[in-house]
Amino acid sequence: MAARARLTDAEEAFIARQRVARLATADAHGHPHVVPVCFAWDGRRFVTPLDEKPKRVGDHALRRVRNIEERHEATLVIDYYDDDWSRLGYLLAQGRADILPPSAADHGRLLALLRDRYPQYQAMALEARPLLTVTPTRITSWGPALNATDEEPANTWQSSGRGNNFLPLARGRRSVRSFQDRPVPRAALETMIESAHWAPSPHGRQPWRFVVLTRAEPKEALAAAMGADWQQVLEMDGQERATIQRRLEKSHERIRTAPALILVCLYLADLDAYPDPERQHAEEIMAIQSLGAAVQNMLLAAYAQGLDTGWMCAPLFTPETVRVALGLDATLKPHALIPVGYEDRPPKRRPHRPIDDLIVRFE
Ligand SMILES: Cc1cc2nc3c(=O)[nH]c(=O)nc-3n(C[C@H](O)[C@H](O)[C@H](O)COP(=O)(O)O)c2cc1C
């Protein structure tokens, strides 16, 4: 174990592979405080954002900020754990902590480093937020994981060389049904569509088209038209008047208040045509399967950018009304409506079955 103020190449490579650091600070009386943080390294300093979450409190009310204002000392631990203990490793950086105001000359450059490492930060308005930096004066590191050349692949994500972010994204996404009143950047919506466009499709024909709604009028028109259709169906089902009213209002509100909506349409015109109905049916099912893949790409792309989404199947039940309300071509079959925005409260999550229940055979 050696202590230095500079990182070796192997240490730089090690920290570049890790996603989280623990930041320890202490108050004037020496009471310790530790939080996990996302971080970047610029060759001289560690940087971590004070992100948008603490709305109710000012920055100085954050324990780590107060502590740093009282004494500019901090320690970062960046560690790697594996059940195979021959792969463990950590780096400890003790040093000086500072709060860097948005007006600082290098604020933009450091924020760009963070956004490179964590795409979620691209959708957050961090330009006006301070950053927290730790300039190490004493670096200590330990473990086989520090030896970049000898390090065994830690898991299949890392060994593939294709990033190790996927599972947390897939796990973290949830269907969100109410959003903050905050617009979605156009670039984020375009990234969602681009991700859809990379989805697998039958013969590579991409049998889906998207309608993106961000303005109030078309959202309102769509909500009103679908609501009228749904009211008829609910009355036909013999539901109570008050129940119908409540359900209609809820659905209307959901469409009207979504900061953005993406209507996903099936587009079959480019698919193969068969003389027999069985193959034609299979061709259409393939297109619908592909639509699901395109939607999932979009949901994950939104989530990766710090956004949240839902999935409304209502257009599938009233495609003609949706088409007319939005003036769409008859070749487009509305299938799903994806509300996009920033969640206003964490949604309840339905329990997911154990993975073993889903695998019928694995041999
Ligand atoms: C094809 C399809 C249609 C769906 N339709 C609706 C819907 O109309 N309204 C809704 O609130 N959620 C809808 N969902 C979302 C599911 O309810 C949700 O994915 C499920 O409860 C699991 O929750 P999670 O997405 O948070 O993991 C739909 C999902 C799929 C795949």
The distinct ligands, each listed once, are: flavin mononucleotide
Query: What overall form do the CA principal axes indicate?
Result: elongated
Integer count of domains: 2
Considering DSSP H and I runs of 4 or more, what fraction of the residues is helical?
A: 25-40%
CATH topology of the largest domain: NADH Oxidase
Tell me how many strands there are: 12
Report how far the terminal alpha carbons are from each other. 45 Å
Radius of gyration: 25 Å
H/E series: EHEEEEHEEHEHHHEHHEHEHHEH
* Arithmetic mean pLDDT: 91
Which band does the percent of strand residues land in? 15-25%
Number of helices: 12
Report the CATH superfamily of the largest domain: NADH Oxidase
CATH architecture label name of the largest domain: 3-Layer(aba) Sandwich
Broad structural category: alpha+beta
Biggest β-sheet description? 8 strands, antiparallel
CATH class of the largest domain: Alpha Beta
Q: Which regions are unreliable across 5 or more consecutive residues at pLDDT < 50?
A: 149-154
Structure write-up:
This protein folds into 2 domains: 162 residues, Electron Transport, Fmn-binding Protein, Chain A (Pnp Oxidase, Chain A), CATH 2.30.110; 169 residues, NADH Oxidase. The protein is built from 12 helices and 12 strands. It binds flavin mononucleotide.
Provide a concise account of the structure shown:
This protein is of the alpha+beta class and 363 residues long. The chain has 12 helices and 12 strands.
